[in-house]
Fold this sequence. Notes:
The chain has 101 residues and is an alpha+beta fold. Helix content is 28%, strand content 32%. It has a five-stranded mixed sheet with strand order 1-2-3-4-5. Strand 4, helix 1 and strand 5 form a beta-alpha-beta unit. The termini are far apart.
Amino acid sequence: MDIQHQQFMNGGSFYVGTSHDDPIAEMTYRRVGPILFVDHTQVDESLQGQGAARALLDAAVAFARAHDEKIVPLCPYAHGQFEKDPSLADVLADLPRQIAR
C-alpha cells in the first residue's frame, strides 16, 4: 500500500490515493510544536479489512520517530491502537489529561 504524506502549515495528512484532495484512505493531524494531534482516520469501503488504517498509523508513527515528535491520538481508531499496542508508547505524548481532550 502506497502511503503519501502531505504537510500544511499547521498539520497534514497521511493518505492513500492519487491526491490528498480525494483520498481513499486518510489520517489527518494538527501540529502544535513537536506534537501531532491525530484527529481523524477514514478508510473507503474498497479498502476495508486490508490494513489501510493501520498502515496510515504506522506511517504517522514512523514520521514522528524520524522527526523526534510525539503523537496525541484523538480519533477513536488511533486512540484504540495506542491502547492495544505497547510498541507505540515511545511516540505517545505525555500531556495532562485536560490538555489532550
